[in-house]
Amino acid sequence: MSIRSDIRLGVNIDHVATIRNARGGVHPDPVRAARLAAEAGADGITAHLREDRRHICDDDIARLKCETDLPLNLEMAATNEMRDIALRHLPHACCLVPERRAELTTEGGLDVATQRTALEPVVDSLRQAGIRVSLFIDADPHQIEAASTLGAPVVELHTGAYCDAAIKSDQRARDAELERLREGARMADTSGLEVHAGHGLTFDTVAPIAEIPEIVEFNIGHFLIGEAIFSGLDSAVRRMRALMQKARAGATGSLSA
Length: 257
What we know:
The protein is globular and about 45 Å long. β2 (about 45-50), α3 (about 60-65) and β3 (about 70-75) form a beta-alpha-beta unit. It has an eight-stranded parallel barrel, surrounded by seven helices. It contains eleven helices and eight strands. It is about 50% helix and about 15% strand. The chain has one domain (about 10-255): Alpha-Beta Barrel (TIM Barrel). By secondary structure, the protein is α/β, with parallel strands linked by helices.
């Protein structure tokens, strides 16, 4: 088992672009948000370029790559169009996610087990270009096993069901989902995969996930951008980092005791 005292935070700035796109123009600028997140201690910037360009657009990706210093993690569907865009801009990382036009946000993880034929050439071409590839999956043993054979070095575990249960105050479901994430992280780590996590995490839900020692990176966006309305983005990022680090320090301390 990998016991990591450090933990990284990637800040997803998609919904800064969503607000901008609500009335057109250039404000608020997602690149400015990325710079503020960097100043507040973020370790990376995440952006999801969707087929319908509902928030982040192609120019945002170009600017994020050229005008910011943090590693860029491009979330994308495994399509030829998105592969070609990634190969043109060469972000630090690409996270392959499922995508449906009708969804409000990403619903569930990739079905790696049944989509291997479509995923394999995209993973191979991105890796050959020197891009770190991750697969956004549910913490399901079948999917983790399939991911470990595909060649992507990273999986990002979908935390949405855990967060939904917490919102509904369903303690039984929350505990079950948390245990599923713990087991999934252990299995992925044992399989030689680097483990990330994200989707729906808030100040109230991040600590139990940060206590899972195999998880080395979180990607959090919607909540932080929403919280920024009230407290500022720098304050939201700093508080999230502090909660993550406190939980990780407590977890690694108990494991080494």
